[in-house]
Amino acid sequence: xxxxxxxxxxxxxxxxxxxxxxxxxxxxxxxxxxxxxxxxxxxxxxxxxxxxxxxxxxxxxxxxxxxxxxxxxxxxxxxxxxxxxxxxxxxxxxxxxxxxxxxxxxxxxxxxxxxxxxxxxxxxxxxxxxxxxxxxxxxxxxxxxxxxxxxxxxxxxxxxxxxxxxxxxxxxxxxxxxxxxxxxxxxxxxxxxxxxxxxxxxxxxxxxxxxxxxxxxxxxxxxxxxxxxxxxxxxxxxxxxxxxxxxxxxxxxxxxxxxxxxxxxxxxxxxxxxxxxxxxxxxxxxxxxxxxxxxxxxxxxxxxxxxxxxxxxxxxxxxxxxxxxxxxxxxxxxxxxxxxxxxxxxxxxxxxxxxxxxxxxxxxxxxxxxxxxxxxxxxxxxxxxxxxxxxxxxxxxxxxxxxxxxxxxxxxxxxxxxxxxxxxxxxxxxxxxxxxxxxxxxxxxxxxxxxxxxxxxxxxxxxxxxxxxxxxxxxxxxxxxxxxxxxxxx
Length: 490
Description:
The chain is an alpha/beta fold. It has 23 helices and 14 strands.
C-alpha cells in the first residue's frame, strides 16, 4: 500500500481501521498459516508457553505472564511487536497516535474539522508502538493516566475545565500500541484500580473531566507469583479483568538450558577463537543452576534465574582468557579450576534461606559446584561408595595407592597449560582411568581433572583450596608424614 500523505489520499487506498488486537490476531494467523516462527529466540516454551500465548492473541485477550525471575517474560512481551503491522498512519502531530479515520483526541478532531482531506498524515513504525513500564511503589496515577498541566493552561490561556490542558500519561500515549507493566504486584492497589475501566470498557477518565477516550491497547503484565505475598498483590478485580494468565517456567532439560546460555552469553568472536570450552564443562555449568533450584539452602520461592548460567559461562571463558593472557599464550582450554572465577556469578544470583545465610554465600556456591561435579562424575565413572570390598575390582586402586604413598598435586588457577598437564600426568593411573570412557582426545585433561574433583567429593582423596590453588592429597598419609616429622624432632 502506498504511503498517503494526507487524509484524502489515505481514503483512496485500501487502508481500513482495525484495533491493535485485530492486528496481532491477523498477523499471527498469517504466520501460523505459513509455518513461520512467531517468537524467535525463545527456547523451551514450544509446547507450553508459546501455544498459550498464541491462543491468547487469537482470542484478543490481555495477558498476564506469571513466573519466577529469569523466565523470559519480558522477552516474550517485546517479541509481540513483530506481530503488529509494520507501519500505520496517524494524524500528524497527534500525541495519542490518532487513527485518521477514527480520531479520539480533541487535537486530531479539531485538525480534521479544520483541514478536512488535506489533514497531514504521518506513518509510524511498529517498534515505536511498544511501551514498557516497571511498576514501582512510587508510580502515580498521573504517570500512567495523566493530569492537568497548569503550565499548558497558562501558555494556551485556557481554563482548567478545558480538556486541552491535560498532560496525557503513558497509557493514553500508548493508544494503538502494546503496553507492558512489569512486576505488576509492586503497583499500589489504588493505582491498579485505575486500570479497571481501561481493561473492561476500553476508556479512561482524568481528574473528573467529562472525557471519554476509547483507548485501543493490548495490555501485557508480568509478575512473580511469590510477589502476591512478599511485596504486594494483584488485586482480585484486576486479575479478573485480565483474560489470559500464562505460567512460564525454567528450562526442563540440560540441552535446552545449554542452548539458551550459548544464545544469550556475551562471548566475543575473539574469545571463542582463543578459548575452547569442553562440552562437559558446559553441562556442568547448567547443572549448577539445576542443583541450585533444588537446594534446601536457597529460597525456591525466589527462583534461580537463567542469568546465573549465562553470567557464569561468561566468567568461565573470561577466567580462562585471563590465565592465557597472564601466561602470554595464544589459545587455551577452560578447566575445572577456572570455575573458581564462576563463584561471583553464583553468589550474586541466589537468595539464601536462614540455613544458607549461616553457611555463607561462598560456602553455598562451592557446595552447589561440588554437588554438580559429583553428579557429572557419576555419568562416566563408578560410584566409589558402592564398590563392594573383595568382590568388585577397584578402578581407583592405583590412584588411591599413589596418594596413600604421601604424594600430592597442586593445580594453580593461573598455571601454564604445560604445568597443568604435567601436574595431572604425575598422578599414577589417572590418564588410564580417564581413557576408559569414550571422550574426545583433546579433552582428556578435563576428564582427568574431573576424576580428581569427583574423588574428592566422595572423600576418596582430600581437596583444599588455599591461595589460588587446589591441593589434592591423602589426609591419612599427610598425618603420618607430620607424625614422622614430629618424632624426628625428638
